[in-house]
Amino acid sequence: MTEPPEGGRRAVVTLPLAVAGLCLAVPFVAMLWVDSYARTAPAFIGIPFFYWYQMLWVPVSTLLTVVAYVLVRRQERARKAGERR
């Protein structure tokens, strides 16, 4: 069953979609790898590393999610423009 159904789309993984997936996976890996940040030093303005490292990932994750969204939307627009031709 390698052929797509009639009238259906075939899923194609392109570089922008792979980068978008990577942007979404990086925060999960960073947070699930607890041994990498389970320590108190270095402190930042008196806050132990364990806490400020996790809080740093809030804006970083937001930024990576926005990048992934833009890449997927751009890819979707290009695909739709290609279908119209």
UniProtKB/TrEMBL annotation:
The keyword Membrane applies. Keywords: Membrane, Transmembrane, Transmembrane helix. The chain crosses the membrane at residues 12-34, 54-72. InterPro entries: DUF3311. The keyword S-adenosyl-L-methionine does not apply. It comes from the Bacteria. It holds the Pfam family DUF3311. PANTHER family: BSL5891 PROTEIN. This is DUF3311 domain-containing protein. The lineage of its organism: Bacteria, Bacillati, Actinomycetota, Actinomycetes, Kitasatosporales.
